[in-house]
Amino acid sequence: MNFSELFVLIIEPSRVQRTIIINHLKSFGIDNIDEFSDGRSALNAIRLQTPDIVLSSMHLPDMTGTDVVNEMRQDPNLNEITFLLVSSETHYRYLEPIRQAGAIAILPKPFSRQDLGVALQSTLHYLTDLDTPDEDKTEAFESLQILLVDDSKVSRKYLHKILDNLGIHAVIEAADGAEALKTLNQQTFDLIISDYNMPHVDGREMVEYIRSHGEQPSIPIMMVTSEQNKSQLAAIQSAGVSALCAKPLSYDVMKQMIEQLVLNNEH
Hints:
Helix content is 48%, strand content 17%. By secondary structure, the protein is of the alpha/beta class. It folds into two domains: 3-131, Rossmann fold (3-Layer(aba) Sandwich), CATH 3.40.50.2300; 135-263, Response regulator (Rossmann fold, 3-Layer(aba) Sandwich), CATH 3.40.50.2300. The strands form two sheets. A five-stranded parallel beta sheet has the order 2-1-3-4-5, sandwiched between helices. Strands 7-6-8-9-10 form a five-stranded parallel beta sheet, sandwiched between helices. Helix 3 (65-74) runs parallel beside helix 4.
């Protein structure tokens, strides 16, 4: 599969911005493009013909990009579609739900062709693996036992889907650090993928306990977070995480990190 086979649906109220985005897409050889200026018309169209990627602005005439992706994630027929936000919005209140819902990327306005290319490439790899999995890597992934920790059910669902697409089916979910620690007392895992901001026991406290008192003190721990505070991020790293990744997490980054932490570094 290549770029020319992608079907992209754009939701952008500004005709000028739509033209800019379309020109960027065409520069990658993408001609199968549908465009809409409002969210409801776009969602109706998505249900009739499923795109490979939905590229949306945040502020639409009838709803927000957050509303669009949430409606997509709640619909079994739409919840696997890749979502890409293009917005100048920087407010946490708007961006955090997008990160939790599993956008493949959040690009600023204006964005660079290179940044768009990275997001499109990740989408391409996701779709390619879905259609024709790499048998060697799938076999290696199939044996992995992963503990997925996140208080957001939507975020867990998105990450679980990525893992499933990689061929990793032995995935246990926990809603917070406390639940994760109980689970770790009952069985062993090859990798922990966790959020940071969680109730009861947060990601940092969970990592510190595992490293100091856990049955698997050396287990690789991949922290996926939307935390922006540098001192908090430093505290997470000093707690002993194996990798710290920012939300939204792309398919390519997830795949590469699992290969690096587990497959290329058997513990």
